[in-house]
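== Item description ==
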Amino acid sequence: MKKLHLTFFNSEGKKHKMIPRVANENLDATKIQQVMEEISGSALFVKNGVTLFVAPASAKYVETIETELFDTEG
């Protein structure tokens, strides 16, 4: 399973990550950067006076591989 990890700088210059629960696994860098710019411009996400997503920092897909060892339910 691939998950999209979007990292932004917040209004304090620290990194803050957004990991959408559902995301297309085949988006290109240009599209992701465009969407991150739109999120950054919205100023919708504020916590304790800190705007969380001010500027894009990076984006990546993280792939998780599960290896089942046993299953007592099946």
